[in-house]
Design brief:
Layout (H helix, E strand, L loop, with lengths): L3 E9 L4 E3 H4 L7 H8 L3 E3 L6 H16 L8 E5 L10 H9 L5 E5 L5 H12 L7 E9 L9 H4 L4 E10 L7 E9 L7 E2 L29 E2 L1 H23 L6 E6 L4 H11 L10 H4 L6 H11 L8 E8 L3 E8 L1
Parallel strand pairs: 4-5, 4-6, 11-12
Antiparallel strand pairs: 1-7, 2-3, 6-7, 8-13, 9-10, 12-13
Helix pairs in contact: 3-4, 7-8
Length: 334
């Protein structure tokens, strides 16, 4: 158990709302086809906002909620697989936007599991007596990776950002990170891929570039083996929550909410059945936002906090999965 307290949350969602009906104008699909297979009705897409801008907007809201001056931050982590630059990091850009000059900054890419990994890392850093406040920002412009001629993937994704401020809690405070269960299965990385730049320089011999590790891809747009991802996701979402709960000594019935990565309604429903969770515990907002990658879990958390639906001391499970393949769950007392 780590004495970590989430003291502020905040989110940013672009104004551009793309409905399923709008999707039918660009690919051979229908509202009925999308909703029955994914549970998605609409998604937000960037109106031109870069990843760093969405991150900074979400961060400002979280800091305001925490009543924390940016100068008090010790660490800024940004979880993203869609940065605007290879360098500098998105976290350093957020630092500059906020004026958080004391913080050290880095990006973390565990794809859609990124926020769970970051929360685990924040708790570990907070065990250092010199670290007091950490800002985690999950910001994703997944639309940059999407092939909008591929109807099987383009209907799934949305853009958005969310942030949390994590601070060291006192011994009397009920807030704590109770347990985490993180994992990766790199041997099946080929089922969800987006390629980066290939080797290229003027001294390279003709034909010397190695073939793609995961098969030839014409560009950076993502490819996905849907059935394999589905089977993996259902298994690891359920099993990681159950393992984390056992590690924390918490019964599933003690959890106020279970917030899964918002990838697909059918995945979430199947995982809930596998872990035998009460459907009333499961948070699902995929109908309105689609899959916003690592931002999906903290967006849901921010909504619950701001609506007054989550009280101090209540226990929450979060669970994610993503490319890599990666997965993870965390149990915390809010």
């Amino acid at each position: 158990m780590a004495k970590m307290k989430i003291t502020g949350t905040g989110s940013y969602l672009p104004e551009l709302t793309v409905t399923n009906q709008m999707m039918t104008k660009i690919v051979d699909t229908s509202d009925e086809w999308i909703t029955t297979r994914t549970g998605i009705s609409e998604r937000r897409l960037s109106s031109g906002e870069p990843t760093w801008f969405m991150a900074a907007q979400a961060a400002r809201k979280a800091l305001a909620e925490a009543a924390l001056d940016p100068a008090q931050l010790d660490i800024i982590m940004v979880t993203t697989c869609t940065p605007d630059y290879y360098l500098p990091s998105a976290a350093c850009i957020v630092q500059a936007e906020l004026g958080a000059d004391r913080a050290f900054c880095f990006d973390l890419n565990a794809a859609c599991t990124g926020f769970v990994y970051a929360l685990d890392m924040a708790a570990r850093y907070l065990s250092d007596p010199n670290i007091h406040h950490i800002l985690i920002v999950a910001s994703e412009n997944i639309s940059k990776l999407v092939d909008y001629s591929d109807r099987s993937t383009c209907v799934l994704f949305g853009d958005g950002a969310s942030a949390v401020v994590c601070s060291r809690g006192s011994d009397e405070d009920p807030s704590a990170l109770l347990a985490t269960r993180l994992g990766s299965e790199g041997q099946t990385g080929h089922v969800l891929v987006s390629r980066a730049l290939k080797v290229r320089h003027p001294f390279l011999a003709e034909g010397a570039v190695w073939p793609d590790r995961f098969g030839e891809h014409a560009d950076h747009t993502l490819t996905m083996e849907g059935q394999e991802v589905f089977k993996f996701a259902v298994r690891v979402l359920a099993d990681s929550v159950l393992e984390a709960a056992a590690q924390a000594g918490v019964n599933l019935t003690e959890l106020r909410y279970i917030i899964p990565h918002q990838a697909n309604a059918r995945i979430v429903e199947a995982a809930a059945r596998r872990m035998k969770a009460d459907p009333a515990q499961i948070i699902s907002r995929i109908a309105d936002f689609g899959n916003t990658s690592s931002a999906s879990i903290p967006i849901c958390l921010d909504e619950l906090v701001r609506a007054g639906k989550l009280q101090r001391g209540e226990k929450v499970a979060i669970c994610g999965f993503g490319a890599g393949l990666t997965y993870g769950a965390a149990i915390f007392s809010y």
